[in-house]
Protein 1
Amino acid sequence: MTERQLPQWSALKPLLRTRPIELDPTTRRLERALSITDLRRTARRRTPRSVFDYTDGAADAEISLRRARSLFRNLELRPSVLRDVSAVDTTTSMLGRPAAVPFAFAPTGFTRLMHHEGESAVVRVAQRRGIPYTLSTMGTTSIEDVATAAPEARRWFQLYVWKDRAAGEDLMARAKAAGYEALMLTVDVPVAGARLRDVRNGFSIPPALTLKTVVDTALHPAWWLNLLTTRPLTFASMSSWDGTVAELLDALFDPSMTLADLEWLRACWDGPLIIKGVQTVQDARRVVDAGADVVVLSNHGGRQLDRAPVPLRVLPDVAEAVDGRAEVWMDTGILSGADIVAALALGADATMVGRAYLYGLMAGGERGVDRAAEILTTEIRRTMALLGVSSVADLNPDHVRLP
Ligand SMILES: Cc1cc2nc3c(=O)[nH]c(=O)nc-3n(C[C@H](O)[C@H](O)[C@H](O)COP(=O)(O)O)c2cc1C
């Protein structure tokens, strides 16, 4: 029989811990978020349904995105034990220059919709943490304003090729003049993907004031107040638009573009060229032969072709085929630092994240983006240590088993 006694105050007292109450609600919210999935949950509460769905959603039945995420979830990480991991180094190299962590912020259109601080908030975090930032053609802050917000950040410009080639040439010239390091050409948007959530929500740009949105105002007053009391929400690189994002893409983008157009691009841009949206070994070879410095394996976060190849699945074969002639990066479906580590082990030189930082932005503006970057970085470091690896270069395919 266990002998029992009444609890003694002297024994209880040292166990009592009073934590200072955090008065700032944003800090409180962000401290409670321990993972990107937690940030996503907060983002969902903080933003109107149509805004959250525009960000979170993908094309058609969203199978591309689900498969990408489920491959990350179901793979097995295989550690080596008894290795010295007292100092784990997360630095890697992107475009031949050192980067503090092995991920960049992917281009995302209409970022000031998610939070009024938008692109400027993201690029400031990028500057502080040494993470490259890609401004989208569909951005809501101008090329020059993003450069002013974070003059020391590594900035890249993402281009969609428009029917009006002169407009693209003008954007490239402005990006060059504003000190952007590289051009990222996105090649998986000959036409817009079918974003069914946007159609169902009646989501348009700019957000329309319908009965639905008026009801939503009551549910998300802070978001609406910020929308209505800050600079009007417009695209920075094109004239204003009245319609869905898909209609806009179809009106502007040139579906006749081919590999031969890379020559035109090369003539306009003499810096590093990143081609984003490659999905097969054959195409990776073709764009590298045509002069790409980086191939980004991506299906646009599942927002274009549904049931597209899962980038992580194609990665080992592409890395082998490219064989060091260009860098190979990947995105789509990354929700944790462990996902990033798995991609590096399977042959990626680096990765990019889209929604992961946007969930942070929606959850708490600039501080939310910082929290997202902090979570990913901590997870990368911890996963590497648990795998018995102290530098990115030591990761290899033996560390991952794909299902
Ligand atoms: C809301 C949103 C907007 C996006 N806008 C663009 C864009 O303007 N240009 C582009 O090349 N890719 C765009 N993407 C795709 C991202 O660059 C990236 O490929 C994708 O988000 C990666 O998947 P992940 O969100 O699972 O990390 C967008 C993605 C999201 C979620």
Protein 2
Amino acid sequence: MVELFEAEIRLIINPEVRKLVWRCLENAPTYFWDVPSSNTGKYHPKDEFIKGGLVLHTKRAVNVANHLCECLSIRNIDRDCVLAATIMHDLCKNGYLNNAGHTVDGHGYLWTELARSIYTKNEISEKTRFITISRLILMHMGQYDLPYVSDWSDELATCVQLADYISSREDIIVDVSK
Ligand SMILES: [Fe+2]
């Protein structure tokens, strides 16, 4: 399943960041690969209200994040962090394991719990900027999350938030089929 994100992972330059993303995807709750992006179909484009819709949403968000990095001249390890955080931002969207029912508030935090064990187990280097990636994932929902964590002066966090928001709009089409 991780192969579905091969193209997105390839955008990341730092091999340690790539490894972290790969391992986290391997350990993602199984529902991540199957559920629609919105369980009610209300908050995301209608074409994501399908099996695999959350994967499609994630691919779209990464596409937008990559464009925003280009536009804002976010480069090198900073760009890697934005891309890694965007790939992983909804990995625990519906909770830890096999809770395919509904979106969980604070699911960014759940990712940090999951990733911390992977990070330790696989002896992934500190150079992954693990703390930065965690912060970006924690903040990705901004005003739509509980607790509300946002900081518009944080350029990288803003980039991830906007990528998630823009790619979730029904009237903005992000084509990732090419
Ligand atoms: Fe999202």
